[in-house]
UniProtKB/TrEMBL annotation:
The keyword Transferase applies. Residues 190-268 form the Glycine N-acyltransferase C-terminal domain. InterPro entries: Acyl_CoA_acyltransferase, Glycine_N-acyltransferase, Glycine_N-acyltransferase_C, Glycine_N-acyltransferase_N. It is an enzyme of class 2 (transferase). Belongs to the glycine N-acyltransferase family. This is Glycine N-acyltransferase-like protein. Its EC number is 2.3.1.-. Residues 1-188 form the Glycine N-acyltransferase N-terminal domain. The keyword DNA-binding does not apply. GO terms for cellular component: mitochondrion.
């Protein structure tokens, strides 16, 4: 196992992963954050270099030790060889399975291997259902999207984290709440505020460059609020040179239609992704 640190090596990996999108997009997004200030303290591990089979983007171990609440253990991965991935996951130098861990944006084919490695180390797993993944390739497609000038567009604040997390299935996890707080603090976000300064529609970008937890309060729906939020956030992310992508529950036809209106390209169903949360068995 090697941790890539030099800009030359990271740049070379970037060019390789770019050609493997969408399968590699979560690792690619994390890599770009590493190369651009790395505010959320990620690092890249490979099985070998320069010829590699597996690359894992994870939180830096020193950060997990010194700031475990602010920066939960998070990782994502891309592999050309499932048996090689298995070997990497079983190596305790790669992922510390003694800590609560979020594994994000992984295809079905990785799930059993990841669960095997984690449960053999005494972890309980919570698996979230299949999600469709979509990628926004064309910044020019939203240049002429106009926002309602009467709306108050702003960025999320850390104090908004509990409100942001509340509507979602994994809202009960302390891991999720701390993760959202760190993303809001360090990374792009967009929201619309009511007259009292409270968010009524929002989304943010995480350290893998994915747009997350888009939501509009029920009483503000069908008003174009989310279109305004998405336009603002997509422009921010594209301007940074980062990929724009997200995931949506396969049965959420309303959200799917909205993403299509923004010219997102949906990844074929066979690449549907999962989110896994591991906690120490009680």
């Amino acid at each position: 196992m090697l941790v890539l640190k030099s800009f030359k090596d990271l740049s070379a990996l970037k060019n390789i992963l770019l050609k493997q999108i969408p399968q590699s997009i979560t690792v690619y997004g994390g890599l770009l954050h590493i190369m651009n200030s790395n505010r959320c303290s990620l690092e890249i591990c490979v099985d070998s270099w320069p010829n590699f089979n597996t690359v894992i983007c994870r939180r830096q171990n020193k950060v997990l030790t010194s700031h475990p609440v602010q920066f939960p253990n998070l990782c994502t991965m891309f592999t050309k060889d499932l048996e090689n991935l298995r070997a990497m996951l079983m190596d305790d130098r790669v992922i510390d399975w003694t800590q609560d861990t979020i594994v994000r944006g992984i295809p079905h084919t990785y799930c059993d291997l990841i669960k095997e490695a984690a449960t053999s180390s005494g972890m309980d797993v919570k698996e979230f259902k299949d999600y469709s993944q979509m990628v926004h390739h064309n910044p020019g497609s939203i240049l002429h999207n106009e926002s309602d000038p009467t709306l108050k567009i702003s960025s999320l604040q850390v104090s908004h984290a509990e409100l942001v997390v509340k509507p979602f299935a994994y809202s009960g996890s302390d891991l999720t709440l701390s993760h959202v707080r760190s993303c809001i603090q360090h990374l792009p976000s967009a929201c619309i505020l009511d007259d009292s300064g409270n968010p009524v529609s929002w989304s943010f970008s995480d350290e893998l460059c994915e747009m997350r937890m888009a939501f509009t309060l029920p009483e503000y729906r069908r008003t174009g609020h989310m279109k305004t939020v998405f336009t603002a956030l997509i422009k921010q992310i594209h301007a940074m040179g980062f990929p724009v992508y997200g995931h949506v529950a396969e049965e959420n036809t309303t959200a799917i239609n909205m993403f299509k209106s923004f010219n997102y390209t949906f990844v074929p169903g066979k690449h549907a992704i999962k989110i896994l949360v591991f906690k120490r068995a009680s």
